Amino acid sequence: MASSSAASMSFLSILVMLMLLALRGANASGIAIYWGQNGNEGTLKETCATGNYEYVILAFLPTFGNGQTPMLNLAGHCDPYSNGCTGLSSDIKSCQAKGIKVLLSLGGGAGSYSLSSSEDARQVATYLWNNFLGGHSSSRPLGPAVLDGIDFDIEGGTDQHYDDLARYLSGYSNKGKKVYLSAAPQCPFPDAWIGNALKTGLFDFVWVQFYNNPPCQYTSGDVANLEDAWKIWVSDIPATKIFLGLPASPEAAGSGYIPVPDLTSKILPSIKGSAKYGGVMLWSKYYDDQSGYSSSIKSHV
Questions:
Q1: Catalytic residue at 54?
Q2: CB neighbours of 11 closer than 8 A, spacing ≥ 6?
Q3: Is 201 exposed, middle or buried (0-12, 13-18, 19+ CB in 10 A)?
């Protein structure tokens, strides 16, 4: 009887430990990095092997919608026109085996994209599902690997029908593996391009760009503008986690770079108390290589 009771207690303690680990994983903060726009930033596999990132966002799919054939652009890494990016499949799987989520970013600062209707949004969602997510296609640009989700980095075109796109993509989660949705709005609230989409409450991760936007970014010694904007984002956006989006070096953006000592001593202590705090997003892997920013802040995030 005693041994049976001990075994039960042992099983119970293991169960509790597993639940605590799962809870910690669900609430863990981390660093998200954009990769893909500079051929000198190392491979995707090397990026994930650093151990610095919990999320890697592939940048970009800058051509989609309005009847266009969607087209990937990974700068100097590979040529999608000759099916040269399918070799990334093994890198993607290597990242995912480490527990890192890999997402594909739509849009970017330069591209040809817009959604002309709800039906257009549905067709783009179908394309993304079949070519990058859990669907099937004979011409998957990144090979057979199944990405974890889709990132909305919409910085041009119109603000129409991205809410529809989010709904259609989210609907595919019912087919098995969850499709994570993320977004990279500018810090002025509400975002001009995806403000309506964010209201859907379907986004898991929102990495707000607190740079190239002086009214809501950090300026030397002054945290008030950033703090005020952060409070609005975490209170008004129904997303699972909100991230502080920053340039990884002074050269990575026109303005908004935060020196490591200021970030770790002034900014992070003031925002980490939010239940929605998810961590820090950095643009980009290339600039992070130059500065070592993620390595310097990882233990503080």
A1: no
A2: none
A3: exposed
Using one digit for the tens of pLDDT, what is the confidence trace for 171-221? Answer: 999 888 999 999 999 999 999 999 999 999 999 999 999 999 999 999 998
Instruction: Give me the residue label for tokens 């119970």.
Output: 12
Catalytic residue among 41, 119, 155, 251: 155
Task: List, as one string, the DSSP characters of 7-30.
Answer: HHHHHHHHHHHHHHHHHHHHH--E
Q: Which helix (H) or strand (E) holds 279?
A: strand 277-283
CA–CA distances in Å: residue 24 to residues 17, 19, 28, 29, 160: 10, 9, 6, 9, 37
Cβ neighbours around 231 below 10 Å, total = 13
| Residue 188: how many other CB atoms lie within 10 Å | 17
Check: CB of residue 223 under 8 Å from CB of residue 270.
yes
Angle between the N-to-C axes of helices 162-171 and 118-132, in degrees from 0 to 180, rounded to the nearest 10:
40
Spatial contact of 34 and 75, defined as CB atoms under 8 Å apart: no
Calpha distance 137→134 (Å, rounded): 10
- The predicted model scores a pTM of 0.91
* Residue 178, pLDDT score: 97
Find out whether 63 and 108 touch, Cβ atoms under 8 Å. Answer: no
DSSP H stretches of helix in 86-223: 88-97, 118-132, 162-171, 195-198
| Residue 291, H or E segment | helix 285-291
Using an 8 Å Cβ cutoff, are 1 and 23 in contact?
Answer: no
Taking only the tens place, the pLDDT of each residue in 79-90 is 999 999 999 999
Angstrom distance (rounded) from CA 210 to CA 185: 9
